[in-house]
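Figure S4 source data
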Amino acid sequence: MAIRELQEELAQFARERDWEQFHIPKNLVMALAGEAGELAEIFQWLTPEQSQAIMAMPGP
């Protein structure tokens, strides 16, 4: 699937749910910050070696 096709599918998904009203810069930045915080929490106190080990683990 091309990037353009994926973008259109995601846009259609949001339109069908009337989510576009929430996709303003402030809301998107706040959501991104929250997700980044959750990711940072995983790595916060790890050594470089421990963080590399996590990245080598298989996903769910």
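Figure S5 source data
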Amino acid sequence: MNIWTVTLRQEITAISRERLPRGLLAVFLGMTAASAVIGSSAKATVGDVYREVAAQGLTTARNPFDGLPALYYARNNVIYIILIGALLAIITGVQSTTRDRRARTADLVLSRNISPATYLGAKLAGLAALFAVLLLAAAILTFAGIAIVTGALPTPDESLRLVGLYALAWLFLMPFLVLGMLSGLHTSSTTTALLAPIVLWSIVIFILPLAGTAALPVSLLNPVPAPAAAPTGFFAVTSGFTGPLAVGEQFKHAAATILQDQSAAGSVTAPVLILAAVLVAVCVVLLATNRQRIRSELHA
């Protein structure tokens, strides 16, 4: 049995025993399963209001929810991935490396003829596979939810787009997983290891989009990025720097395009390339971690 197989099994077993990742996982899958129902309830509420207003002769406009595509009911999952999924990835990564430092497992493993890059690469591969299974389960729940709400199975094209959404979600979550692993390796306590990447996540998801555009803060919780206004003044200077780094907005733009949202324009190519570049960069940093850092003592 090689290092890759052993590490994969060990990571799955360890994560399944830890309460915080299990709790976040349950919340994420629960919200994913409820997403289509939440969307359907919103549609029903708006429909009831529209019919009452139309019956009173107060409007002749068309019901905005008429003829909605089935993929509309997957939109809320974009926000769940950005908020709950990213936090789950960070915490999983942090606990993966702090667990080994606390138990001195790394000392035992690295006493053999195994390089630090191989050791960390095996841990990352195991966690990446675990998240792929998690997102596959989320995709199945989304598929089932849409089928229940609409009364029909998604078409082959819609099914492929759901697969594309969760493949994109994997690409979005992996840098946060690696960031958590790096924090667990380079900080001196578990508290700092958890706090540091969460602060960085809040900056990337909320602060950078605000620093690059004049968007309202509440719009950042919209699963579809708001149309960007023409940058002027301060924003004209900052938008070019913050845009590529605001990976949450990049993910939302690509996800909206995949889900065929009419307000989304452009292609998924640029956001996918940016997310892939971020993943490669953090992976290079992780795999360059030296033996002394991996074996350093962790304080409570």
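The first helix runs from residue 3 to 17. The chain has one domain: 3-34+70-294.
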